[in-house]
Amino acid sequence: MLDKLFSPRAIAVIGASKTVGKVGYDTVSNLVKSGFKGPIVPVNSAGGELFGLKVYPQISDYPDPIDMVVIAVPAEMVPAAAREAVKKKAGAIVVVATGFKESGPQGRAIEDELIDICRKGGVRLLGPNCLGVINTAIHLNASFSKRLPQAGQLAIFSQSGALCTAMMDIADERELGVSKAVSIGNKADITEVDVLSALAHDEDTKVIVGYLEDISDGDKFVKAAEEASSRKPVVILKAGTTIAGSRAASNHTGVLAGKDTAYGAAFKRAGICRADSFEALFDYASALALQPTPKGDRVLIITNSGGSGTMAADAVEKAGMSVTPLSERLAAQLRAKLPAAAFIDNPIDISADAEPRHYAAAIDIAVTDDDIDAILVVLAPQYMTEPAATVRAIVAHLDETTPVLASFLGGSDIMPPRKELAAAGLPFYDSPERAVGALKAMHDYGVWKNRPARHVVRFPVNRRRVERIIARRQRTNRLRLGEVKSKDILKAYGFQILQGRLTSTPEEAVEIARFIGFPVALKIISPSIVHKSDLGGVRLNLGSAQEVADAFDLMMLRINKHAPNAVIGGIYVEKMAEKGLEVIIGMTRDPQFGPMLMFGLGGIFVEVMKDVTFHLAPITENEAVQMLQSTRSYELLQGKRGLKEVDIHAIAVALQRISQLTTDFPQILDLEINPLIVGEIGNEPVVVDASMTFAPLLGER
Q1: Which of 276, 460, 662, 697 has its CA 20 to 30 A from that of 298?
Q2: Cβ atoms of 40 and 28 closer than 8 Å
């Protein structure tokens, strides 16, 4: 834990300065002004006095213990200062100086020396190149931030010191209040993983808000974030991107993974509310900090304007939530309390002359209705509107079970009550769209938190078979597997593989076809040819010996013409699959987060629409089904639009088998089954084509 960082009993500042504007001056000033109750020990070789405090020439001159040391000297002097702090048996060191790895090789060498000193001394290091740390509960401002934010239940951590101060300013503006704020800077020792773990157990914190540019350890981050999210909401803005793999991908899975997909999958797995903008970061945090989490996705809209109600309804449906119709009972209750001119539906349009008591009455009725999960109040300024009085009326009728968010449209006419809104615990937004974005984040967090217990199924498989194939391929450095060998591996992990054999002559192809039974398919097998169909390397539904022989000769002729230098391994004769729906499942291994599973429908859904979804392995059955449900084409799997319903459970099992295979064998860098033919319920899916790539043995890269 980080007790000595967040709750020190005595603090020293090495590099304390009497020069206004220097970091050493600002840090001591902040410690004094914040009202920190413990000893504050300025350290400077010049000695003297600062803010009425004795300045010690050396930290060793101070006779009593020191828990935290803030180092505010130039980078080249930091290692020596850190050694003195270690000798003093400090528990935490905060380095606010710049000029380390962010500045080049010389700075990196200084940072490496600093890390070594702290590790050997058993002291935790925050920074370097950081703002510092704040704990409002003990009036601690060990930073060079301008001021101590007001106390509250929002914890802030940031990789950027400047954004950390901006986040504290916004929290104050929104009347949220801050419990702790920490700038992690270069993350030489203390990282986002340590901070999340500490804040997860912090009783003063209700919501965690973070800004990250990169993640130090993907696996540890997911575990720490998942633990934190299980206790309280975590909202993170991730800037920058990471490439899922530096190799050139030759399949859809690798190409479609994109630069930022791994972070999205990791955040989803860990229950993090991911903000896609600085604005959304606090939109979500406000709602999660001030209101209860909705039990479902049914939203009631209350407004005094038909246009703004329509905007809100559009936003709710686009977010994937429901503008639920009113029950007869609820409609009757509302008619009895609202003006005759009110439009009693969802949205409820109270009418232009809506009075504060009308909003209050509608909310008072709606919060007790079991068919309503969340309420969005939209107010547009009109001549007879009373914004301030409306705010007070709404707040008086809030309860602790149904979340209520407000969108007050307009400018100066609406501004006065916004402070009242925030102070009273009612999140407010400039537009219905922003309010709905916050509602969606709340809903998704509620779904994640109430998810079934994670149970990863382990299927009986032939693991030894796969071990032998991979070992042989790595020894001979043949790392790209085509269809035949990929199917061998998939068969060992329980996938249905149609009967087939490889041949190099048309006569043998005919014999194989007769043995396995017509109709058959012929496919060219070549490590040089990735997309077989483009070169005439696939023939389907061959129903006789003559068709097989003719197709074999024609295929070889076309391949020799279009790819004369291709290495041909033969032609694969395979039993034709029954008709069904073509889907793609695959895996690409992210260097930070490990195997990412992919699912999508075949054809234009993957080629043109790129309608795919990703999830980190290992995966549960429930998570696999959620992957399918998150695609736009999910209704086709359900048998809508004239199609037959397919076996969704069977697809989920296939994803779980790929999850097991790729977690069992980290040597597999990427894998794709394209297509997997899925039939009606009760029919086992069939692997039609597949490919995969292995990592080289260490030392052979």
Answers
A1: 276
A2: yes
